[in-house]
C-alpha cells in the first residue's frame, strides 16, 4: 500500500447486480442441483460456445478456475511424469504452478520484445538447445496469440500446444491441435467470480479433462485416473448466464475505455509505447473466427528506453496523485525464489532472459476497467506525463 488515498483504482470488476442474478438463482430453488455438471452449467457451456466461439465444433469444459483449466488441459495431454514444459517467464505464477501441480517441470524462455509473448519462432529456436515435451504459450495481459501459427508449429514438431489465455476469453482463438485455457475470474472481462474454460477441437481431450475434473471417475463411477474436484458450481454458472446477457455492453464499455487511452496516447507518445495487439492468425483450416473484437483486458505501457527513472519510482509517484497502477508479471517467474533453479533458455541458448528482465524494468499497468470516465483517463495519462517530464529524464528528440 502506498499510504496515499486512491482516487482512480487500477481495477474494478464489472459483475451482474443481484437483481440480474435472481432469475437464475431461483432456478436452483426448483432443481435443488447445486454442482456436479448441473443444468445451469450445461446451459452456460453451450452459450459460451455460441457467444465466444460461434461454433459447436469446438468442445469446451467449464471448471472452477482458470488455473484448474490449465491443469486439466496439461493432464489431458497424457505426458509422462517429469515432462519438461516450455513457458514464457513473462506471465502470472499460475502458469508455472499448473505445470508443477501436474508433476511436470517448467522451462522458462524469453519473449518477443514487441508483443511480449512467446512465439513459435522462439519455441523453435529453443529446440536447438533443449528437448521439451509441450509448450505453454501465454496470451500476456490478454494479447491474443496467432493460433494458426501455433497449429503449424505442432504440425512441424508434433509438440503439444496448450495456450494459457486466462484474460482472453472472447478474443483468443482455438485452432487444430491448439488447446486453450481461459479464466472467468471476477477481474477478467468476462467474469463469474471464479471459473475457467478449457477449449479444444479434440473431443477426447475434453472428455478426459472432464473425467479428471470429477475425481478421475468414469461414467460408471469407477476411478480410472488420478483426478481432482474442479467442477464449476451452479451458483457460478448462474453468474455466467447473467454475464452472457451483459456481454455486448461489457465489450462496448471496454472499447470506449481503450479508445480514450489510444487517443490520449497519440498526443503523448514521447514517453511510452503500447503492447503490440494484433489478432493476425495466419489461420489454417478449422481456426475459429471469434465474434468478439479484440478488446484489451489491460492497459500496460512500456516506458521508452532512454528514460532513466525506475519503474517502481514511477508507480510510487503516480500513487501520490491517487492513481493506482500494477507492475505486471514483475518479477519474471525465473526470478521468483521457487523457480530460480529451473532451466532458462534465452537468446543463443544462454540462461539470460534479456527481454523479460527489460520489460520488468519498463512496463507498468495503468487503470483499466469499465467504470473509468474519460476525465479519469485524462488524469492518468497527464499524471504519467507529469511524472516523467518533471523528472527531466532525457532530452526528447523524437
Task: Describe the secondary-structure layout.
Layout: H1 18-31, H2 39-53, E1 59-63, H3 66-75, E2 84-88, H4 94-101, E3 105-109, H5 120-127, E4 134-135, H6 147-157, E5 161-164, E6 178-183, E7 196-200, H7 203-213, H8 234-266, E8 272-274, E9 299-303, H9 311-320, E10 344-345, H10 354-360, E11 363-366, H11 374-390
Parallel strand pairs: 2-3, 2-4, 3-10, 5-6
Antiparallel strand pairs: 1-7, 6-7, 8-9, 9-11
What does this structure look like?
The chain is of the alpha/beta class and 398 residues long. It has a single domain (18-390), classed as Type I PLP-dependent aspartate aminotransferase-like (Major domain) (Aspartate Aminotransferase, domain 2). Helix content is 36%, strand content 12%. It has eleven helices and eleven strands. The protein has helices at 18-31, 39-53, 66-75, 94-101, 120-127, 147-157, 203-213, 234-266, 311-320, 354-360, 374-390; strands at 59-63, 84-88, 105-109, 134-135, 161-164, 178-183, 196-200, 272-274, 299-303, 344-345, 363-366. The protein has a four-stranded mixed beta sheet, sandwiched between helices. Strand 2, helix 4 (94-101) and strand 3 form a beta-alpha-beta unit. The radius of gyration is 21 Å and the shape is globular. It starts with 17 loop residues before the first helix and ends in an 8-residue tail after the last helix.
Describe, in short, the structure shown:
The chain is of the alpha/beta class and 398 residues long.
Protein traits:
single chain, 398 residues, alpha/beta, Aspartate Aminotransferase, domain 2, four-stranded parallel sheet, globular
